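Hi there,

I know you've been waiting on this one. I reran it after we fixed the sequence typo, so this is the corrected version. Both the input and the resulting structure follow.
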Amino acid sequence: MHIFSKLDTRTKLFFILLLTLMVFIIDKFSAAVCLLIFSIIIRLAAKITFRGIKFFKNLTLLALFIMLIQTLFGPGESYIAEFGSFGLKREGFFLGLVIVCRLTVLFMLLPVFTETTPPDKIACGLYTLGFNYRIAFLVTFVFNLIPFFQEEAHSILDAQKLRGKRTLGIRTYINLLVPLVLGAMRKAQVSSVAMDSRAFGVYKTRTWTEKPQMKPRDFWFITGSIIFSACILFFNYYDVCY
């Protein structure tokens, strides 16, 4: 069992929120690369496979489009190359790389929380943070939809392959939106009926089978996360790449 399965839910939630905040703060290339490398290491340490990386390959065109737009129309006065009235801006190129790194970091970090924390512990952790248990259950329900969407998408793709339809990359995933949304609506309706039949939400408080407790490793992990975030901010504000 890896360390992320042993950490308290609140610790992992703080870690994910802190790094997500870093993603939106950083705007320099060296800091973005450091954060990307760290997120890959964290994913490997959590023993989460890269089976979903195939989906990210389909976003390559989006990443190239972002870099092209930033290189042509982004900020900057120095040019890598000039073609008449247009030019490839050096600063815009690095800014495009930073944006791509941000998207990749978010893609890497989200499963670290969702795949190492059972839904009931997510709800209990949010409840101990002061959230109403109805809101905690709503957040848990959203996380439960992630594997549901994955299973439904695979089932639909397999059905399409049996009918002889070829996969067309991003266009194929766009065609999945309607059946996935309809399936999610049916699942939400069934869950709503089940909750109403059990009188969910009648009482202001509720009991939990296991009350989470912070352990020394949680405090050490939080301290290390804060120190790492401070280093990322240092690289961000003292970057000399461009």
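Quick highlight: Residues 8 and 215 are 8 Å apart (CA to CA).

Best,
R. S.
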